[in-house]
Design brief:
Elements lengths: L1 H17 L2 H8 L3 H19 L2 H25 L6 H5 L7 H38 L3 H34 L2
Length: about 170
């Protein structure tokens, strides 16, 4: 089954590469900055896998954990953020109910999302260790970037996505 996950990640990466970030953001509601960051992380992960050795093996383990997690994020954790600027401007989006549902799902699934972050973080540390031992600095730098990305999600993005939904509930 890991081969299937790798194929799904490759298909997602191809989709990200073929569709301009602005068009993909418009289609999914996810801010283009987050789409671009996820695209970059996918590219860097692919390079770490291609590096081979223990680094490549560790990167494949990260990919196995990361693919379903990114899928959840793109399904319901990040789309509310596409409405953050409008909400901050006092506007109420047309799909208020859908945004509230996504935000509520994120709030409900937050413990699971954080557990996934912990599992991913452990795999990322193994990747970083292997990359340093094998002198593959690009893979080690990717590990650091992914760790920082997860902290940003936990401290800023997830809470902001939940707040969008909570604000829209108050506007009922």
């Amino acid at each position: 089954m890991p081969h299937v996950n790798h194929l799904a990640s490759a298909a997602l990466l191809a989709l990200h590469c073929l569709i301009p970030a602005g068009a993909l953001a418009q289609a999914t509601g996810i801010p283009s900055s987050i789409q671009a960051e996820h695209k970059e992380l996918h590219l860097r992960l692919s390079r770490a896998i291609a590096a081979g050795g223990q680094t490549g093996a560790a990167a494949k383990e990260v990919e196995k954990l990361l693919a379903p997690h990114f899928g959840k994020e793109e399904q319901y954790a990040m789309p509310p953020l596409g409405h953050l600027a409008a909400v901050a401007d006092g506007k109420v989006p047309a799909d208020k109910a859908g945004i509230i549902n996504m935000s509520d799902r994120l709030k409900q699934d937050m413990p699971e999302m954080l557990r996934e972050h912990s599992a991913i973080a452990a795999a990322v540390q193994r990747l970083r260790k292997a990359a340093l031992e094998e002198r593959k600095p690009e893979a080690a730098q990717f590990a650091d970037a992914l760790t920082a990305h997860a902290r940003e999600e936990e401290q800023i993005l997830y809470p902001s996505a939940i707040l969008v939904g909570e604000y829209l509930k108050l506007k009922r």
